[in-house]
Amino acid sequence: MKTLYHIFSILILSIAFIGCSDDDDKNPIEFNPVEGLNLLYEIPAADHLAQIYSEKQSLEVGYNEISIRIKDLGNNQYISNAAPTWVPMMYMESMAHSAPHSGLRNAEENTVYKGYIVFQMASNSTEFWEISLQYNLNGNPVEESVRVSVAEPTNGLKKTQVFMGSDNERYILAYVNPQSPAVAVNDLQSVLHKMETMMSFPKVEHYKITVDPRMPGMGNHSSPNNEDMTYNGTTQMYHGKLSLTMTGYWKINLKLINQNGEVLKGEDVTEANPASSLYFELEF
Amino acid sequence: MKLSINVFPFRGICMGALGVLLCGVSASSLRAQESPADTLKFVELNEVIVISAGKQLDHQKQRKPLSTLDEFLESSLSVNMVKRGAYAWEPTMNDMASERLAVTIDGMQIFGACTDKMDPITSYVDVSNLSEAELGSGQQGAMFGNTIGGGINLKLEKSNFKPIGWSGSLETAFESNNSMRVFGGELNYSDEKIYLNTDVIYRKADNYSAGGDREVEFSQFEKYNFSVNSGYKLAADKSISATLIYDDAKDVGYPALTMDVSLARAVIGAVSFNQDSLFGGLSNWESKLYYNTIKHTMDDTQRPEVPIHMDMPGWSETAGFYTQAHLNKERNHFFFKLDGYYNKSYAEMTMYPENGNEALMFMLTWPDVSTTNVGFYAEDHIPLEKASLKFSTRLAYHSNFVADDFGLNSLKIFYPEMARTNTRFLKSFSAQYHKMLKDFHLNAGISYGERAPSVSEGYGFYLFNSFDNHDYIGDPGLHTESAGEANISLVYKKPTVEIKAATNYFRVFNYIIGIVDPSLSTMTIGADGVKIYTNLEYAQLFNATLSGRYTISNAFKLSGSVSYHRGVDNEGENLPLISPVAYRGALDFYKNQYAASLSVNGAGEQKNFNPSYGEIKTAEYAILSASFGKRFFIAENSLFVKTGIENILDAHYSSYTDWNNIPRMGRNFYLTLSYSIN
Known about the structure:
The complex is a heterodimer. By secondary structure, chain A is mainly beta. In chain A, 8% of the residues lie in helices and 49% in strands. Chain A has 1 helix and 22 strands. In chain A, strands 13, 14, 15, 16, 17, 18, 19, 20, 21 and 22 form a 10-stranded antiparallel β-sheet that branches. Mean pLDDT of chain A is 88; it is low at 13-26. Chain B has helices at residues 18-22, 29-34, 69-74, 405-412, 455-459; strands spanning 47-50, 79-82, 90-93, 101-105, 108-109, 130-137, 150-156, 165-175, 180-190, 194-205, 209-210, 214-215, 221-235, 238-252, 260-277, 282-299, 309-328, 333-352, 361-384, 387-402, 421-437, 440-451, 463-465, 470-473, 481-493, 497-516, 529-551, 556-569, 582-591, 594-603, 621-634, 637-646, 668-677. Chain B is built from 5 helices and 33 strands. By secondary structure, chain B is mainly beta. The A-B interface holds A 1-2, 4-5, 182-185, 215, 217-225, 243-249, 283-284 and B 307-308, 319-321, 340-342, 349, 351, 353-355, 358-364, 372-374, 397, 399, 406, 409-410, 412-414, 416, 461-462, 519-523, 525-526.
């Protein structure tokens, strides 16, 4: 029986290999450093071009990973010494404010500068977001800016929380990963920023965010072996584990706890209290 | 002629020592017949339930022909049936159920496709195509597979090249309580060169009513079964045969569960090759290749109130073989069997959220588990002076493999380090001794056996058990369960009187059972908690039976039995589904083609129950039944008429085997007509 099974497996495998062999004949595709990303905005200038890429089709409220490339039109090359910085700005009718964002780094690919922005709100006809970029081009500082449109996520799921903690500080917590949740133990990541001023949103380090996933549609079913999110100095994000026992709609109940063990936001889920005021929503 | 015919009028079963008489129809009959001709030649604790005795039938002696296979099995002293409704009862032996038994159909391994045990494999055959059920208690059942509690083999009925020519029969039955209609027919041809047996049976039942005319909702069922058995002689000493069974049940209600079954379908096929002798003195060489596939679909759409609607289909596919032969030496009679199977079990659950905009909730409840088992069984029967010895062993390789990544990742939520493959080596040894002292027969034996966890125990993912109202999660790291067993029986036997006292004791190590993990959150809405299949250090099971029969006269026979059972875990807590004291008695009459019987069966109060498995104390009960039959001759053909009343006093009762204590059937009249054409 076992032997039969092996023979059968080998047969299947060999068919699979025969099936694949066609692909080998094709010419190897040239490596594209922005493979899989969407070019959302292009900022044209006289002698160069700045490009804004995202994995998404458009920018959305919440965490957005963004890639920037700058093309020197003189030699048609993407430059790797631009050392760009950026500032996102929201211009409302009576005020303006920035958004939590990271620096831009070209560590993975030297012509692609990567970073993230957490947009707290959507843009509309009278209130808009602008990303301004400063960078060096052939030794000269350049500043360019582009108006971007930011929409609420189409699925309507809450993945960004802007709140006042019990320490009277204003925080922004945004969901990062998993982008494709699975019925498994998922690596859970989020970013946490504090709103110091309208313009300053520093990262918050060394807090803890507890994780309690629930399915409200299944009598608040939960899952085992979740891990609270703790700060990771390398990625500068909060990392934890998220167990999802089935597909469907999940509410990830959270509590934000500071270094002194004080709960800044969120509550335990109990019979009487079915959900925390701090949460993410997932559906898959 | 098919129907269900008991050779023993008083009970329809023949226990242990009675097997001596019955060796002619038992599995090892061929070997037995070749041993020295004394009554000691064949000593087995095996029991044979005769379902159909072919042409030598004596229909009149069958209390209730055309009853379901479940009812037949339940008529055995050593089998109890766990009931979740009127259909698809789950057999237990020595107070152990499916996962601890080896249940085969004509030697073929078949595994149910339902995660909630709604389709024991006994539900995929019908009495219409069976000749008998062979039962082996404990390791006496190891011939059929790895087992702890015992083995059951359902033997298909075959004409086997008997020179009969054409024959056929038509049969029908009606039961008043649930308006069950049964229609069946068979057409057979057999000569020395070729045989062909075909039969079809259809059953449809409405809801039954418990005692006091209280209707038990969702207890209906409908099923049909079709089978063909054929054989062809290649030469005087060689033949090939083939089997095909198609079984289809629809609209099966399970009053004890939260859902019903819209479809349970099995296709079972086999080809075999038989040869009288083989090299080196081996004889009766038989080899079989088989395949079966089962689809099982649960359905809750008929239920008025469900917290959440769900679809739960399951599939089970098995391919296997065996090859076996006898070897008769001067002092030793050997039997060898090499067998193997490959099974794939896959089950899923899709739940439909109340908010129709939300994504469907999907999980794999059986993560496409492939099981490969290859085993070698050998036994040696040694006749001695007024005594005999039997040794047997089974050595098997058993491997589980989780084929589906989704399922593997699901289980890794609970067991991050679990491996995809789990391999074990299973061993079984047994020694039985039989001694005859004048009118007494002494049987005693010791044995050791092992079994691998079932797919549910190893890999189940949130399987809801409505009895204890818990979700169950398997554990792929479970240890092999093993058992040491001792049995002893003493039979006093005279032509008119027979009394048998039998007892056995199992000490089961690494006993697998669900244990609550309070840290886990339930999946099923309304469930009380989550249990994880866990190895207990050990559990102990004890069974004792006293039975007897007395032939009052040629026409009247009296029989009776009483049994005691006990099962406790390593902390002295009661195990679930252990029978209280149970008893039966019957008076049978048979003369001049007339037959009648009056029988009683009952049980004492279930004192040893365990509330943490959902059990409550089941009250004592006694049920009275009667039957009456007559055989008419019409030309060369026969018409059998049988009628009877079950539960005459219309008692409202439930037994310890009734899932969630659903009440059993109340008063029931039945009528069976069978016309056999020779």
